[in-house]
Write a structure and sequence with these properties.
This protein is α/β, with parallel strands linked by helices and about 230 residues long. It contains five helices and 17 strands.
């Protein structure tokens, strides 16, 4: 997601390539953003922390990542600000607060660094919660209310492992967070080269919208196709 708040431009967990290991992008590779003030990295998995994509952004963007990722990113030639849950920083005049997430902390099994995953709450008004990759957890209610919630509803394959939310669990997160606007993310982009796309690839955001209508009917759910945008005001 590219978040524009005032004059600040913040990019979340960017993967700007057409393929990555066994994953392929559909339908097309996005253009590289012209200007980015900061990149928010939620955790260390390769589909969220992609070093070639960070290098494509050049030297102008600050990288904000979980505490413990700095040495790994520094060896890759990147400057990073580390945060732990509860800590805050600022980018282009916008406050960014790190919040907990429930997800695997390792870069990959048995190899690479480990760092506790994060979500981020951006700005005071409108406030935007980017969940990264996380399972549902009760302390989400401590962030409420937020103006906009960017919530993962699926993954890059037909099955979700631990530390993820499907459409139903993401709808329960909406009930805890009480946002004005909820936008489903983490769907409809990458898929394994050996797996055929099907309902698992395209249906989760619409399932999410139906679930939210049942548990939090006052929330405005906006389903964005990859490449689309929307706007909100304080």
């Amino acid at each position: 997601m590219l978040v524009e708040l005032g004059t600040a431009r913040l990019l979340t967990d960017p993967v700007l390539r057409s393929r990555m290991a066994h994953l392929r992008r559909h339908p097309e590779t996005p253009p590289r953003p012209e200007r980015v003030d900061a990149v928010l990295i939620s955790h260390l998995h390769g589909d969220h922390l992609d070093l070639p994509s960070l290098r494509l952004l050049g030297d102008g963007a600050d990288v904000i990542a979980p505490r413990g990722a700095g040495r790994f990113l520094g060896r890759a030639g990147l400057d990073v600000r580390e945060l732990a849950a509860g800590e805050r920083t600022e980018a282009a005049g916008v406050e960014i607060r790190a919040v907990p997430a429930v997800h695997d902390a390792r870069r990959r099994p048995w190899i690479g660094p480990a760092a506790d995953p994060l979500g981020f709450v951006i700005g005071p008004r409108p406030s935007i919660y980017f969940a990264g990759d996380t399972d549902l957890f009760d302390a989400m209610r401590d962030m409420a209310p937020v103006d906009v919630a960017l919530l993962p509803v699926a993954g890059w394959g037909p099955r979700l492992g631990p530390g993820h939310m499907d459409a139903a669990r993401a709808a329960r997160a909406v009930a805890l967070l009480r946002p004005h606007v909820a936008i489903p993310i983490h769907w409809g982009t990458f898929h394994p080269a050996y797996t055929r796309r099907g309902p698992w690839f395209s249906d989760p955001p619409f399932e999410f919208a139906a679930q939210v209508a049942a548990v939090a009917p006052s929330v405005d759910v906006r389903v964005l196709m990859p490449g689309e945008s929307t706007s909100v005001s304080a």
